[in-house]
Amino acid sequence: MIWDIFLNVVCPFMGTIAFAVLFSVPSKYFISCGLTGLMGWLAYYFTEPYVSIAIASFFGALVVVLISRILTVRKKCPITIFLVAGIFPLIPGSGVYYTAYYLVTNQLNQAAFKGLESLKIAFAIVIGIVVIVSIPRQFFSIEYWVRKWKRKGEFKND
């Protein structure tokens, strides 16, 4: 039990930081990248027992992109810094590997199953990214909500 919790917290965090290093992300963003990947993985991990793997990947991608958008506004940097590194724990790498393996070993039914499953996961991740990226940047800024709240309060006093 403890080992399972350890692996599901430390591995996505460290793996995301490793990809951040690989993509030459500035070191001041390493912890933020690690937390982004960790939160996306935890969203996937906790929803996967209740829904399909593709839907769980969709929710994980939503969390990754949402946190990436928030960090982008807060830290004033490009979204790709957090998004590219943070999405890696959700990528269906083993599914693609096994698809190729089953194709090479002439197990076409297994290859089709794994390939379709990997494709569904990839599309779910893309849809999760599109949903959050389509929200205007200003919605992730605290100043926007403070101004909106103050304007709303002005109308109530009239």
From TrEMBL:
Domain Threonine/Serine exporter ThrE intervals: 9-134
Principal place of residence: membrane
Span of the signal peptide: none
Membrane topology: Multi-pass membrane protein
Keyword Membrane: yes
Pfam families the UniProt entry points to: ThrE_2 (PF12821)
Subcellular location: Cell membrane
Transmembrane segments: 6-23, 53-72, 79-101, 121-146
Keyword Cell inner membrane: yes
Keyword tags: Cell inner membrane, Cell membrane, Membrane, Transmembrane, Transmembrane helix
Family according to the record: Belongs to the ThrE exporter (TC 2.A.79) family.
PANTHER family in UniProt: SUCCINATE TRANSPORTER SUBUNIT YJJB-RELATED, UPF0442 PROTEIN YJJB-RELATED
Name the UniProt record assigns to this protein: Threonine/serine exporter family protein
